[in-house]
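Exercise 7.
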Amino acid sequence: MTATIARQPRLDYAPTLPWRRTRRARHLFALLFFLPLAGGAALLYPRVRDQWQVLEWQSRCMAAPVPPGAVVFKTSSGGVSDAAGVPFAWRNLYATISPPGLASGSTVFLQEMRTPAGKRRLVAVDIDQVTMRLPFRGPHHLSLSARVIRPGAGIIGPQLLSTSDHSVVIADENSRIVAGARDPADPSHFTFTYECAGRSTVYDGWLRDDDNVDIQERTK
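Solution. The predicted structure, written as tokens, is:
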């Protein structure tokens, strides 16, 4: 008796794709994947560029661009004879934070400080431009604006936290204001000086935990 051997069914496989067609598919997939990413990057680039510029201005402001001891305001018999002006980085930074920007004639103090609790802040004290107009008549109240900025980082921009008004009484002529400096022993404290007729008056500024600035004439 002859045994019948069952024949195995024949398997038909699809033909192997040519390598060119496979590589073309990979290229098409890569194109479809990266095209939206490229479009998103193109849309985000202006924002990233602008944020980088803002952080660059912020860095310059926090590095104290107004040198301590610089004369930022000076009067003579003809009125205001000299004003140091506002640093470029500060004017541009503030215009970004609070459009349309500053109405200041000169900057008395600009530097990074710390609250008593240790929070980093940018503090600026500016002379209001309107009070620098001529002519002066008798003792004159020069208005100051103190601003406190919370620094930005990464994609988060800087934020204005407070603005407070202060004043310095100056004489008709031959008086000046000298730029302030941060206290090396206390980063929440700074000073600036008013000088007239050979006499100097020191003003103390204090950054508080509520993000406000107190400015007081120092009494002997």
